[in-house]
Amino acid sequence: MLAGLGHYDSKVVVTLELSVKFLSLALVNESLAFQAHVVRSAKNFSFAEGFLYQAGTVPAQHLAIATAMVAPAR
Which of 15, 44, 47, 53 has a CA 20 to 30 Å removed from the CA of 69? Predict the structure, then answer.
């Protein structure tokens, strides 16, 4: 949702759809990082995707993948 906030003048973005796929277990003693970006944007909604991974891993092995459709609140 935060990736969608950067595309609209609205202070609030609502989630229209959210899907999370968990691919692997995360280690509790390791730091996690999350990266997200908007894949496609229109006036009334955006499609975003994000990846959860162990911080410091190169290349990052995805632990989870999230996809979302977000829209500015009216």
Answer: 53
